Amino acid sequence: MSVLTKQAPGAAASLAAGPPGRRKRGTARRRNQRSGYLFLLPWFLGMLFTIIPFFASLYLAFTDYNLFTEPNFVGLANFQAMTEDPRLWQSLKVTFIYTFVSVPISLAVALLIALVLNRGLQGLAIYRSVYYLPSLLGGSVAIVMLWRYIFGNEGIVNGFLGLFGIAGPAWVTDPNFSLSTLIVLNVWTFGSPMVIFLAGLRQVPTMYYEAASIDGASRWRQFRNITIPLISPIIFFNLIMQLIGSFQTFTQGYVMSGGTGGPADSTLFYNLYLYQKGFTEFEMGYASAMAWLLLMIIAIFTAINFIASKFWVFYDN
Amino acid sequence: MKKTATTGFSRRIFLGAAVTAAGLGLSGCAGGGSPAAGGNVELNFVYWGDSNRAKMTDAAIKVFEEKNPGITVKSEYQDSGPYADKLATRFAGGNPPDVLAMANRSLLEYAQRGTLADLKELPELNLEKIPATVQSRGEVDGKLYGLATGVTTIGMVVNKTITDQAGVTIPDDKTWSWEDYAKFATEVTQKTGGKVYGAGYDVSTETGPILLARQRGEDFYTEDNKLGVSEDTIREWFQYSVDLRNAGGYPPAGFFEQIGGSPAQSYLAKGTVASQIIPINNFRGYNEAVQGDVVLLRMPGETTDKRRGYSADPTMLWSIAAKSKHPKEAAKLLDFLTNDADGAAETLTQRGVPINPDVAESITSKLSADDTTFVNMMAAIQEDDLPPAYVYPKGASVVADTLKQLATEVEFGRITPADAAKTFLEKSNAAINK
């Protein structure tokens, strides 16, 4: 159990694993450290490419940079313009609906499938891979293209509905349905939280269940009072990761709408609008300001979650 | 043994890392046209289009290189969407191509930010034979930032196999009105039992309302680079398709999933619509996609409204980057693309009718029947007295996006044509006057 709880907050683990307390440095240790840093070298190099644009965009957020001419400092003008930009509000609306509908559903589906798989099916590895596969592909251009065909007017979804005499809507081109098509796509990629849930479920000691069933607890009761509390750190981790990921959605909206966020801005994700502002309207200053707003939004939601987690996440230590 | 293995391993990793780093550094600055040995100049030339266009362009470039020893041309092409993105990034990165294709709606976005060269300042480019009406389409404040690659306009293509089978006569396109077209389209739908929709043009491309505005006596974009179209005209444009849909002549909402694809992917080629509006330099592609039974017609309303809506429009524009390291050679290439008959013999009317009349004349015998149809129609239209047309203003790409968005809202009945027109003017004016 202790292994589980240490790993649960996930990403933090790799950071915490820094050099342990100072001791006499043996040559072996030093060599280990050196190769450790060597293995980290690509990440450090990558950081160079991230850290410079990171601060550059912070500066540009306060300028009127248009890609071609020198940026001029404009103070908070970009942020002020945002409050009066209807498309910005539309893009926030799209992103929030997408996030708050698809994240809970995909987590629920992931947990459900993980529970089923955890009951010790034969060929578990195969099922696990099959369910995990969409996670690897979901954000790819090819799958979104495929999605367009599946939900197209002559696609299999409407073909299937047609068997029952139902004339399906234009899933992709009707602004009333286009976002739901993308939400389904996102839910479909429940594989990566599922694999993490599965790992968590396997760590729950069976003795708890044995004790509970001797006391006459029902299956549901066991799930409610044993499984959920014990894997709550995992749920929390998955929730945070999914939330951050879906706030940053870009590819799905871009490919599905051919870069426009259409039909009628119904799939205008925040990041897609940011991209349009920067690269088709050449308002890079404004786009940079948008990027920082997104960072703040994500930070706020993550903070809220961390505070709320005190009331429902159970750490067994 | 162990030791050597270890050092070997880490050295290999180190080398790998170093090579990777060097590779990243290199890719960061690749793409600049550095002069090769022997005084050779390499020009970077970019355009959008398909492989067919690229094949013809490559052949012309070969002719150029033979005629201009010491200049090599490195050309690149892409689809229009990614092309636009990449172009913006290259300009922003201070590494623009030397000679490039530019969309009408993007020209002033670039030019008014000082990124394009004034073509009149380049003596290597001979503009003597180029009509003033064509030059004006790339001009602002007396400076020429874009030169038409050729001229074209829009027209109506009708699949005659469908109309013949349905027993519907195609009206005379010299005199037909928008009502005639609506009646025709509705009849096709009725007589095919709803299997084929009579009309399937794209409501959301700006060339349609631009023509309608001109017919109604307005300039969509005015001489002083403003929006000149009235709310009433835009409302009318939206209302027309709504009425036509209600009458059955136009497909239901959500029918069109892919607009702007190749002729082979078009709904006309699939046989689900009987007519469509196209840029007429693409006529050949459509006729081939439908096995040669497509007729090319003039747009409706040309003689029944206030004035002629037609104008000879740049298919796209050629520009030279202000930061080009080889403006002289770039101008030579542009001069070749514009004034050289041997080059034009390779590209023909791929980018519209050549703007130098002598060059246009020289290729007529080499054209296929379909391209001849296009060229003849272009010539016939220009025989009449056409009102002047102007360069697209800065903000025109936002106007195009706004039109697309509102067209969808209207299509699904989420907004009335009147409200859409009002919003269109508000948003477009805001973008243009910014």
CATH class of chain A: Mainly Alpha
- How many helices of chain A? The count is 15
Average of pLDDT of chain B: 89
Helical content of chain A stands at over 70%
Number of distinct beta strands of chain A: 0
Number of domains of chain A: 1
CATH class of the largest domain in chain B: Alpha Beta
Name given to the CATH homologous superfamily of chain A: MetI-like
Structural class of chain B: alpha+beta
The radius of gyration computed from the alpha-carbon positions of chain A, rounded to a whole number of angstroms, is 24 Å
Q: What topology emerges from the helices and strands here?
A:
The complex is a heterodimer of chains A (317) and B (434).
Chain A (H helix, E strand, L loop, with lengths): L1 H6 L3 H6 L10 H34 L16 H7 L2 H32 L6 H14 L3 H10 L5 H8 L14 H11 L2 H13 L2 H9 L4 H29 L3 H7 L12 H10 L4 H29 L5
Chain B lengths: L1 H28 L11 E8 L2 H17 L3 E8 L1 H13 L6 E4 L4 H5 L20 H4 L3 E2 L2 E2 L2 E2 L2 E2 L1 E6 H7 L11 H14 L15 H9 L15 H17 L19 H4 L4 E5 L3 H7 L4 E4 L15 E2 L2 E4 L6 H13 L1 H7 L9 H7 L5 H15 L12 H16 L5 H17 L1
Parallel strand pairs in B: 1-2, 1-3
Antiparallel strand pairs in B: 3-12, 4-5, 6-12, 7-11, 8-9, 8-10
Helix pairs in contact in B: 2-13, 9-17, 16-17
Would you kindly provide a written description of the structure presented here, covering whatever features stand out?
- The complex is a heterodimer of chains A (317) and B (434).
- In chain A, 71% of the residues lie in helices and 0% in strands.
- Chain A has 317 residues and is mainly alpha-helical.
- Chain A has one domain: MetI-like fold (Orthogonal Bundle), CATH 1.10.3720.10.
- The N and C termini of chain A lie close together (9 Å).
- Chain B is an alpha+beta fold.
- Chain B has two domains: 37-150 and 314-379, 3-Layer(aba) Sandwich (D-Maltodextrin-Binding Protein, domain 2), CATH 3.40.190.10; 154-310 and 395-433, Periplasmic binding protein-like II (D-Maltodextrin-Binding Protein, domain 2, 3-Layer(aba) Sandwich).
- Helix content of chain B is 46%, strand content 11%.
- Chain B contains 17 helices and twelve strands.
- In chain B, strands 2-1-3-12-6 form a five-stranded mixed sheet. A three-stranded antiparallel sheet of chain B has the order 9-8-10.
- In chain B, strand 4 (139-140) and strand 5 form a beta hairpin.
- In chain B, helix 16 (396-411) packs antiparallel against helix 17 (417-433).
- Classes of the chains: A mainly alpha (317), B alpha+beta (434).
- The interface between A and B is medium-sized, with 34 and 35 residues.
